[in-house]
Amino acid sequence: MDAIIYKIYQLFSQEIELYGNELALGPVAAAEDQQTTLQSVNWQQASSLEELADQIHTCTLCQLSKSRNKFVFGVGNPHADMMVIGEAPGADEDRIGEPFVGKAGELLDKMLAAISLNRETVYIANILKCRPPQNRDPLPNEMQLCKPYLLKQIELSSPKIILCLGRIAAHALLETTEPLAA
User: Fold this and answer.
1) Chain-centre distance of CA 123, in angstroms?
2) pLDDT above 50: residue 23
3) In the predicted model, is pLDDT for residue 19 greater than 60?
4) Distance (Å, rounded) from C-alpha 45 to C-alpha 50?
5) What dihedral angle (degrees, nearest 10) is formed by the CA atoms of 62, 64, 66, 68?
6) CA neighbours closer than 13 Å in the CB half-sphere of residue 15
7) What pLDDT is stored for residue 102 in this prediction?
8) What is the pLDDT of residues 40-90, one digit of tens each?
9) Which of 43, 52, 81, 123 has the most CB atoms lying inside 10 A of its own CB?
10) 18-27, 28-37, 170-179 — which one is most confidently predicted on average?
11) What is the 3-state secondary structure (H, E, C) of the chain?
12) What does the angle CA 175 – CA 152 – CA 66 come to, to the nearest 5 degrees?
């Protein structure tokens, strides 16, 4: 009997690691628990991006926190007119702790240069602050938990333009599943 219980425990542990607490707790209980946790933290009162980063960099609301090397908050000019938003950190970003530093970062740098901008003239962030395993797409519950942090980043930086890089970032920020192309 103990062997069966242990196998069930292992199965649930793997499911929780892959999909978050939503599976184990059920959607309603998970959402209530997540909301309570989000409301009990003082990060909403942050008055600067630096203060916000300091208050949330140890976040453990989802399973991604257990496998991350570094919390990836954001970089660039905190008062920039343009904010660039990607979906989630990759391996290089997780290792260094900054968004868009790998191959995607090289491409972003070239794109910014083509319009006479650079990392110091924009602010760069992601929907998720921790790397999903094997660079998989972010799960809905992960985005739900991280999105309030991003919205606070947007509030504090007050960009005039938000550039979402990719379908996942655009869908998460716009809260839609409509195709981006006509």
Assistant:
1) 15
2) no
3) no
4) 12
5) -140
6) 12
7) 87
8) 458 999 999 999 999 999 999 999 999 999 999 999 999 999 999 999 999
9) 123
10) 170-179
11) CHHHHHHHHHHHHHHHHHHCCHHHHCHHHHHHHHHHHHHCCHHHHCCCHHHHHHHHCCCCCCCHHHHCCCCCCEEECCCCCEEEEECCCCHHHHHHCCCCCCHHHHHHHHHHHHCCCCCCCCEEEECCCCCCHHHCCCCHHHHHHHHHHHHHHHHHHCCCEEEECCHHHHHHHHCCCCCCCC
12) 85
- Give the list of residues 6+ apart from residue 36 with CB closer than 8 angstroms, or none: none
Task: Please give the pLDDT value at position 27.
Answer: 45
Question: What length is written for the chain?
Answer: 182
Copy the structure tokens of residue 69. 């090397």
* Cα–Cα dist 96/131, whole Å: 12
Compute the average pLDDT of residues 125-140: 95
Could you give the angle at which helices 140-157 and 27-39 cross, rounded to 10 degrees? 30
